[in-house]
## 1
Amino acid sequence: MEVCRIHIVAFLVTLYLSCFCAAHGWGIDGHLITCRLAQTRLSKSAANAVSELLPAYADDDLASLCSWADRVKFRYHWSSPLHYIDTPDNLCTYQYNRDCKDEDGVQDRCVAGAINNYTNQLLTYGTTASQYNLTEALLFLSHFIGDIHQPLHVGFTSDRGGNTIDVHWYTRKSVLHHVWDDNIIETAEERFYDSNVDELINALDKNITTVWANQAKAWAACSNTACPDIYASEGIKAACEWAYKGVDEGSVLEGKFMHVLLIDAY
Ligand code: ADE
Ligand code: ZN
Ligand code: ZN
């Protein structure tokens, strides 16, 4: 199961880093893309475990349920703070003990804590009478690995990861957080992939095995049970260097991010 987990995590991670893809966004497409790329890279034992844990209606397609965690936020109200990390404004650093808590200060209640928790739950797969709902653990973990790689899911506290910063994406009104969840991916998909998410997935898939092969190895490296702290540190750094950089309330944002993100995909 260790192997399963590493594969699941490593790949979902890899994917997101390279994922500047398309049709509905990190909201839906970002998760779809990362999970689709991940599932094809599972070891045999991990693939079997995932098949066994997915509900029959998913038809063996992990990607079809990778946005489930967003849909249950209202039913499972406790899960809302598990999608992100708020770090101190303008520090551009992340520390688990300082930052991984919810708004009431309850420790471990952030996306990094959730990744550790659901990874540990999944490690009980195959043991007698696991006390956990491992289907939900799989769906949460698959989703949170995507979220933690969206730079603004490890953002500043006062603007709630860019959720309170109104901007324009080209001529359209948007919110900075939404630009990075959805707009960049949507626009890239339309412009470069004929609005076809499968083409984007194919381009990423090809790059992962060719021009990004060395980087992909580094992305997959993890010597702990899970490595969310590495991703979160990279996330807030990327947020400061890219997502927040030069952006104010009312800024007009255009595709320069998209270009940087997509250039390798050719
Ligand atoms: N709510 C508060 N902070 C957030 C963040 N960084 N990302 C998403 N939702 C949030
Ligand atoms: Zn989420
Ligand atoms: Zn988001």
## 2
Amino acid sequence: MMQLSESQALFKAAQQVIPGGVNSPVRAFGSVGGTPPFIARAQGAYVEDVDGNRYIDYVGSWGPMLFGHADPDVVQAIQEAASRSPSFGAPTELEVRVAELICELVPSIEMVRLVNSGTEATMSAVRLARAYTGRSKIIKFEGHYHGHADFFLIAAGSGALTFGQPNSPGVTPGTAQDTLLARFNDLAHVEQLIAANAGEIAAIILEPVAGNMGCVPPEPGFLEGLRALCDRHGIVLIFDEVMTGFRVARGGAQERYGVRPDLTTLGKVIGGGLPVGAYGGRREIMEYVAPRGPVYQAGTLSGNPLAMAAGYAMLRKIADTPDLYERLETFGAALEAGVRENLKGLGLDLYFTRVGAMATLFFTSERVVDYETARRCDTRRFARYFHAMLEEGIYLPPSQFEAFFFSIAHGERELEQTLSAQRRALARAFAD
Ligand code: PMP
């Protein structure tokens, strides 16, 4: 048995002073049970907990660690920035350089505003879309997660879905009524909603590849169909690329699928592990943002020098590593082939999805295309699998409804260890 005594002591102490012992719900292992390892350090593809257990990491800080943990360029950039003082609350050169790089790398972004989290980015993008169109309602998709702003906590994915409370108390009925829910990958449903709310819809927001109900790719034509509907009805199309940005392709899902949204939200990768988010898009819309325009949005620590230093180092590496996405794809394809072989060898029929460097093994034999089909997974068996993998030294996201991530620090050795651990873990999960 794995030794977790230090983590157990810390988790106990944490629960006295932090709700649930964590600062973000999924970390508490609520749906899989047990004690979350408290992490002490990480390097490359590995994380190490306070009891000295080492794991091959498939969480990657939930997305940012495209080059693996403690990347020397990113760490050095942060150290140098820290020595110049962590914050000024005044403009800095690095903010310009980061914004320039984002505009260069993401096809639809002409102007961008930097914020401190994905939540801030999506919340601000919706405010902007509402101001730009003069309309109130938005369409979101069941099982998609866009952070914890009130009007998104309606049939939300990620932790909200994991804990079975996709609708949070504290969200007023007045707020909830402006959020219309659509089924992902169901264009006809979106069309019906638009028809029933003619002239009232400001924005359609989605994860172009869903990641917060597990990894669910868009069906062919779905994104194009949304683009056409938005054009026809004067609706702002927002791609929430907080997860997919710089992960499913250099230019995100919009590059991979060739569909341009009006606004894009980003997070995770662009901070290199520090808290950063961004929203950007067509110049004409972005010019509505204060102080250029009337839509207020601000942040004392927005564009923070440490975050910008990390983000710039990260984005520079992304721009300057020509084979980055080929290398991620090579690992991803080998992992996928190995997972399929394992399933076949064990006679298991589970649904596996992967888009670039994000993937999910769904504990169902059905094709998962939306929230309804995702929810039919056997989460009890997933929990057994999760713990068996953890014991084997493989750190997966502690929920069926999260995508797992890998980096270019994951190589041949990690691949083999992961696949052989998985054979044993799956056998244990299905032992009865
Ligand atoms: N949008 C998406 C697609 C996300 O995956 C997340 C976080 N996982 C968010 C928004 C919210 O980002 P943050 O947690 O940084 O507020």
